[in-house]
Amino acid sequence: MSDVAERNPVFAAEPARSLGYLPKLLDRWRLMLMVQALDIAGIILTAVAVYPVSGAGFTGMPSRYLLGALLTAIICNVSFTQAHLYDSDSLLDETGSIKAILIRWSAIFLGLAAAAALAHAPQYYSRLWFVAFYAGGAAMLAGQRAAVAILLRQWIRDGYVTRSVVLVGANELAAGLVERLEHNEAGIRVTAVFDDRSRRTESFIRGVPVLGSVDDLLEFSKTHAADLVVVTLPIAETVRLNAVVAKLRQQPLNIRVLPGEIGLDRISPIRLSRRELPGVQLIAVADRPISELALFVKGAIDRMAAGLGLLAISPLLLVIALGIAMSSPGPVLFRQPRIGYKGRVFQIFKFRTMHHEFCGSYTPTLRGDPRVFRLGRFLRKCSLDELPQLINVVLGDMSLVGPRPHMVGQKLHGTMLFEEVDDYMARHRVKPGITGWAQVNGWRGPTETLEQIERRVEHDIYYIENWSLMLDVVILIRTGFVGFFGKNAF
Fold first, then answer.
1. DSSP code, position 230
2. Sheet holding 228-231, edge to edge
3. Residue 242's CB: how many other CB atoms inside 10 A?
């Protein structure tokens, strides 16, 4: 435990509450998925419930009706998602949400009716059922939104479904922001304040604890939720402000700057474009490179693909393991601490390619390195020694695609890498990967020169700032052609 954890028990405390019967379900994106599922199920059940009005009685519902209801539910889900109607702010504002939903619901039905007319296929669906489906669906969605808003407000009052805001700057502006947010109904909670001059400030800002410096905040964010970081330092102090933001960019944080008192001078809680803090004007500085929902989807795909991959190549893994056991005495797998997501250290798995007595060495491998045995040299050349990292992906320490994880305390000519390259620590804003943008662009292998480090970091930052699932697919495809072989693999 770090010094700040010892000084501040908040660091060691449970970071968030959860309902026993719905563990972890009430994170905002999980809440969004829950409401989406309710909408889809409600639309389909409404279509089934009103089917008797078509004149067919309670006999079996034809499959075309079910397909029509499913298509309607999918179109609604896409439309509502694009309109941000599943965001917690929209779910709390049932009046505005219901109005927006009814407009889109009506537009979708008009579009479906027009499509049926143009296709000359109105006889496939009963008009009475179509009208009843429209009216029943509208009533269901409106009632459901009202019920969700009531339930969500209760959860917020009980301390659930909250958004954690952390402030940087223990000053009067921070106190004003805390005061503004003290009695909000959106679930926003200011949980901590950090300041490099914390030893010269009060221990609390209007009841919110001052927990240490910006470095302490970086440690805090590794284990505690920080949905938004608001810097309340004077914007005229550009040097100090830039230094603070540069440090904060080492972690996957949404960073905003409060531009002085003018940012608080709002008579009413206006809706900002990002609807982050009611009645407060913020300047966006940096966003998480990957949202919570996208991170979940990426992680789920990674683990599923890695698990299937391990099963598919298990014969190859067995052959390699036998080959290593016969070539060099010692364990088949090699483990080494590496720096991962948010700067956390994890144990990476690789096939052992060096003689066992040299495996504890942290000296980088060189061309023709005598520590590498013959089969190990072949495995390294073909990158087959990296295959056990699929285990790291299944465990959640790594991703299929991401910046390659470096050794703990890795240096270049006696200097730590983060001291050589400004954006080096920003690589840890995403999980490390088995392959990455730098590797498929030729920057794989040794880190013997400053240029090699800079180009690798440059490509890693590009990947982080431009991430998408499609980019991951492109990198995986290119890895199959160029990533596993090359002059820099040895």
1. E
2. 204-205, 208-212, 188-194, 163-168, 228-231, 255-257, 283-286
3. 10
CA 366 – CA 381 distance, rounded (Å): 13
Q: In angstroms, rounded to a whole number, what is the distance separating the alpha carbons of residues 289 and 461? A: 10
User: Residues near 54 by Cβ (< 8 Å), separated by ≥ 6?
Assistant: 126, 128, 129
CA 89 vs CA 71, 188, 277, 365, 487: distances in Å: 27, 11, 10, 53, 53
Residues making up the chain, counted from first to last = 490
pLDDT in tens, 221-256: 888 878 899 999 988 888 888 889 888 888 888 899
On the question of pLDDT at 55 being above 80, the answer is no
Q: Give the whole-angstrom CA distance, residue 35 versus residue 146.
A: 12
Over range 126-135, report the average pLDDT. Answer: 89
**Domains contained in the chain, CATH given:** 3-15+161-288 (3.40.50.720), 28-157 (no CATH), 293-483 (no CATH)
Q: Tell me the average pLDDT of the chain.
A: 82
Q: Give the DSSP H or E segment for 348.
A: strand 345-351
Beta bridge partners of 433: 399
Pairing of strands 433-435, 399-401: parallel
**Percentage of the chain modeled with pLDDT above 90:** 30
HSE of 159, CA atoms in CB hemisphere, 13 A: 6
Q: Which tens digits make up the pLDDT trace of 141-161?
A: 999 999 999 988 888 777 777
Tokens of 44: 């389909």
Reading the block at residue 477, the tokens are: 């495809």
Of 105, 94, 96, nearest to 72 by C-alpha is 105
More confident residue, 331 or 1: 331
Please tell me the predicted confidence (pLDDT) of residue 387: 93
Residue 235 Cα distances to 77, 232, 261, 281, 284, angstroms: 42, 8, 11, 14, 13
Whether residue 45 contacts residue 131, with contact meaning beta carbons closer than 8 Å, is answered with no
The CA R_g of the chain, rounded to the nearest whole Å, is 27
CA–CA dist 232, 153 (Å, integer): 29
- CA dihedral (214, 220, 222, 225) in degrees, to 10, reads -110
Contact 125, 65 (CB under 8 A): yes
pLDDT beyond 50 at 288: yes
Reduced to 3 states, what is the DSSP secondary structure of residue 255? strand
For residue 208, is pLDDT > 70? Answer: yes
- For residue 413, the model assigns a pLDDT of 61
Predicted pLDDT at 25? 45
Distance CA 256, CA 178 (A): 15
Give the separation between CA 373 and CA 392, rounded to whole angstroms. 25
